[in-house]
Design brief:
This protein is mainly alpha-helical. Helix content is about 75%, strand content about 0%. It is built from five helices and no strands. The termini are far apart.
């Protein structure tokens, strides 16, 4: 109620606020560029989020496989086939089994 009266008095007095005046305002070029980029990202959210999703997936796979290789000895030898580590592992396993049979 008081707000309406105040607004009515202001209108009758002829006082104009800066928002009602014709003010030529322009934003800085840097601000306009940032806003344009923000609106472009808002229009295409999947394209801009896809690299983040891919990086998270690669990180999760790397952590899971690293944990698996740390815990499981056979798995670590599976990934080292070309270096001769498998033959060394099999030789050690054979020596270990033959040693326990005696």
């Amino acid at each position: 109620m008081l707000k309406k009266r105040r607004l009515k008095r202001i209108r009758q007095s002829g006082i104009r606020s800066p928002l009602q005046q014709n003010v030529n305002m322009s934003f800085p070029h840097r601000f306009r560029e940032k806003m344009r980029r923000t609106f472009r990202k808002a229009k295409h959210p999947v394209i801009y989020k896809l690299p983040k999703y891919a990086a998270c997936f690669v990180l999760a796979v790397a952590l899971a496989s690293g944990t698996w290789l740390t815990v499981d000895a056979e798995a670590s030898c599976f990934f080292c086939m070309g270096t001769g580590a498998v033959q060394v592992f099999l030789l050690n396993m054979d020596l270990l089994v033959n040693h326990h049979k005696k």
